[in-house]
Structure formats: structure tokens, C-alpha cells
Input
Amino acid sequence: MKQNAKANSKRRSPYRLPFWARQWGRGSRYHAFLLLVLISLVVAIVGAFVIRDLQASNTEAQVMYTGAVHGLQRIGELQYDTQETRRATLYALTTSDSNLQVEYADQSRAADQRVRDGIAEYATQAEGPGEIKLANNLNQDWTSYLKIRDEILASILEGSTKEAIALDLSSGVPAFERVRLDLNEVKRQYQREAADRLASLVASSHRSTWRLIAILATTFFLSLAAVWMIQRSRMHSAIQLAKLQMEFVASVSHELRTPLAVLSSAADNLADGLVAETSALRKYGAIFQNQSRRMRALVDEILLFASTEDRRKHYILKPVDVTRIIDSVVSSLRELPHAAAFVIDRQTEDHLPMVLGDTLGISQCLHNLVENAVKYSGDQKQITIHTSSHPVTFGHEAEVQISVIDCGIGIDRSELERIFEPFYRSPRVHSLQINGTGLGLSLAKRIAEAMGGRISVASGLSIGSTFKLHLQVAKGEDVQTDQSIDLLARQTNHE
Amino acid sequence: MKLLNKCGTALALALWLQSQMAFAPIAAGLDSGLVDQGVSSEPLAIVVNQSNPLENLTFSELRKVFLGDRSYWTNGRRITVVMREPGEIERKVILHDVCGMTEDQLKNHVLRGLFTGEILVSPKTLSTPAGVRKFIFNVPGGIGYLRISDVDPSVRIVRIDQLLPEDKGYKLHVRMQASD
Output
């Protein structure tokens, strides 16, 4: 046994991962998700920019059309109407028929009215001092021309053709020329505006293109990064699992080798005829018994884990009295040599209801929890098994809680999530040279869940741990016969 | 030159005689009371351009204007008379009531005036009331006549002897058969 202890003391986990790798492994499962969220966010933001740019371009195009293009079109109409005003006036000169002259005057005035409306529209839309000044000049020059035009028309209608021609040449032509120049200036201004807006539209289009390229590139690179991270995460998980399995094989080998070494040594002694006395033979028989039991328990645990590996193990649930199961587990525990020195305090509530479960399953589960408590209690050799019933609460049905409380080394808060993982063993446990396969808690959790229950844990470093087995309360079913429990008890005694 | 002057004098004399001969039947008609029973009448408004400051004309001033004896308004603008085409009832009223002439007499009168330089512009002739309105609207010195129902805000009505067309005692009316 001393050799075993020595061997245990020398044993270090050769598969322990470095700190950064453990942290990366812990975080990597979230990193891929975070990266995907980040990609979506970036794509959404850049996409929003692109959509905004496209909308801006669309608006720009509409503004350009309604503004500059429509303006140019209106200026074209305005130029035509100014010419029409003058043309109709001059037509009146070509006839001496008063009726025709009046008709031409009418046409001139109608065209003049359209020009006035056009100028008023331009003045309304004018923005900035330059455009307003231009609109005022145009209006002023057109009004001046109209005054002259009225005089010319009056002269024509009065029959003073020479006077009308003289007035037109002296005043009408220069006044109309000023209007024409004004209109050309307005046209140039609209052309400048259209050119500016077109340049803005082109710039906006280029911006959208670049942003689109950026979004595609970003999405591509981030996707690559995400794939890389996911692959790395998977690879890391696979490596970790392989390492855990290697560690498990090493642990199991070690656990098997110890009793095998004892058995081999005892067998050698017997074969060599070194043991002849009856008392010595009995002692050797006890050694064979204990070591073979230890080996069988280990093999049973591995087989049980293998049977629950695919989560297909199903129990036939029946109402069960947990008190008797606890009794059975405690009595079986007392027979274990390393648990003999422990004080096991049982606190059981009166009139506990029956729970829904499987006797062997609950027994196995409790056995693992209690043995776990024994293993990690350190020098504090006290274990409390507290059993109580709890009524229906929010989110939970009525249940019976079996708490296994130890005052041992406790579990680090960061490791609480991982202790139920198969093969997981805390680095601290390794450093404290506590042997195990890393299957006990995982197995207990699976069995509890297979029975519709669960296991919870609360722990503090150097304070101890409390593992709670939550089992559903049976609802009005028949009380289970004690055959299973008796069977269990018989099994225990037999062991 | 002497020959030309003699010819002109002879022409003027001939035209004057013709006009005097034409007055007789019109005057007789007026005396015999042309406003027969069974006819309806509508006032005939004398209209000018909106810019014309003229408010009132006496009947004799109106006659001078239409006969071309007065060529300028008080604001200095040249007077341009506009009339409907021969045969129109409004023209007949003006010829009869204002000018006291027949078509031929007026024609001769204008020709003589233009020839002698007493008339600067011959009356303009328009075929429709709308034409008259537009003419008056376009010509600041224009004056014409319209039935009261044809008047619109583009022209302004002038009082005659301080009377508006709707006033009692207004002298210019278009007389129409009731069957019209």
C-alpha cells in the first residue's frame, strides 16, 4: 500500500494542457459565435451605409431631374415664349387689318403671360443671392421690354407703322437682347447646377461601389476568420478530448495496475509456499477479495459510463423510498477501507414522500456522490447526508433533495461548469495527487437526468462542497416493493 | 400748285354738299320718332383705355372725337377711334345719333379730313365686340363703343353729359326688334 501511495505521489498528469490553451479552449466555443455576430453586425452596418448611399443617389438623380433638367426644359420654353411674344408683335406690323392686328396682339400677350409665369416660377425656386439677383434682373428686363412692346402694339394698332418700327429698333431690340442674355445666363446657371449634381451623383455612385466592395471583402475575410476559428475550436476540442481520453486510459491503467500488483504479489507468495498458516491464508483471501472487488467496481463504472455514453440508457421509474437506499449506500460505504474512518452524519426529514426513480440508479448515483465526498474531503473526515422534501416551486415540481455535504478541498468557481464533463479532472486535483477516472460525477449526472432528476453543486475553495441530487416526488403511485432494495442490500453484503 | 388747290377746294365743296344732302332724311327720321313701339333697346357705352384719365365727355365733344375734329386727349395721347364694321347696328347708332351722318357721309368726311390733314388717323374698323375691347385695351388713346352687355373690366366706360349708360336720359341706345 505504501508503494501505491508512493506511486501516486510521483504521478503527474502528463497530458495537462498549458494555461493559455485551457483559457483558449474555454473561450473558443464562444469566439466563433461572437465572430459570427460581429460579421453580421459589420455587414448590417456597411449594408446600411450602402443602402443609404443608393437612396441618396436616387434622391440626387430625382433632384437633378426635377431641378436642373426640368429647369433647363422650362428655360427652353421660356426662350420660345419670349420669341413668340416678339414674333406676334412683329406679325402685327405685317398687316393693316385691325382685326388681325388685334389677334396678333392677343397672341403676344398670351405668350407674354406664359413668360411672366415662368419667371415667377424661377424666382420662387431661386436659391442663393446669385440666382435671386438673376431672377430680379430677368423680371426687370422683361417688364422693360413689355412696356416698349405695349407702345409698339399701340402704334401698330393706331396705324403708325413707321413709328412702331422706329420704336422697336431704337428700344425694343436692345430691351429684348437684354432679356435674351438674361435667359442665357439662367440657362448656363442650370447647366452648371446639372453638372454639379451629375458630379455628385457620380461621386455617390463611386462611393457606393467602394462600400459594396468593402462589405464583400469584409464579409469574405471575416467569414474566413470565422471558419478558421470554428475549425480551430473543433480541432482544439478534439485534441482536448483525445488528451482527456489518454489521461483516462492512464488513470484506468493505473487504477487497475495497483490491485493487479497486489494480487500478483499475493499470488507469488502463495505459489512460492511462503504462506502456510491458516490466519495468513485468510488474510491473503481478504486481500484477493478486496482487490478483485476494487477492480470489479472500476470495470463496472467504466461499463456503466459506456452504457450511458449515447444517453440511451432508460430506467423504469417507480415510486421509491430513498431512506432505505441511503441506508444501503451508507452501509456499503462503511465497508470500504478508505472510508472507514469517516463520520457520516445522516439528517433525514420525517415522513419523506416516495420519489420517482430506479433503486439501482439512485443507489449508483448516491454512491458516486458519497465516494466523491470521501475522496476529496482531505483531513476533514466528516460527511453529512441531508434529505428533505420541497414543495412545488416556480419552474420545479415537488422534489426530494439528497444533499451530500463535505468539508473538503472544495471546487474553484471557474471549474464548476466542467466537473460534470466526462474525463475532466481538475488540475488542482492532479497536483494534490488524488486518483480517479473523471467519470464519477459525469456518470451520476447522467443517471440522475435519465431518471428525470438533476444534480446541482455549490462549493467554495477550502470550505467544502455540497452536491444535491434532486428527485421528483412520486404522485399517488403504489409504494414500490422493497425487492430491489433487498436485492441491493444482498448485493452489498455479498460484495 | 394753283391747279391742285382749286381741285382740292372743289372736292371739299362737293363732299360738303353731299353731306348736307344726306342730313335731311336722318333729321326727318329723328323728328318723326324712330323709337317705335315693339322695339327694345340696350345702352351703348362709350369706352376708353383704362389708362385714360377721361371721366366725362359732352355729347358735342363726343361728336368731335368720332368725326376726327379732336385728335388728342388731354394727357397728350393721340385719339384713335375704333368702330364696328358697316352694317352693324351699333355703328348705325353712332353714325345716326352721334355723327349725324350716313356711311357715305362719314366716309367722305374722313377722306376729306385725312386729305386736308384735319384728321390724323382714320377710324379703325373691327368686326366683333371682343375685337373692340382688345383694341381699346391695347391702345391707350383708343375710344370706341360697345353694348353695355359687351363691356368688361379691360376697358373703361366714359360718362356722356355726366350720364352713365344705365342712367336715365342717357342718349345712346341700340334699338332692336322685339322678335330679335
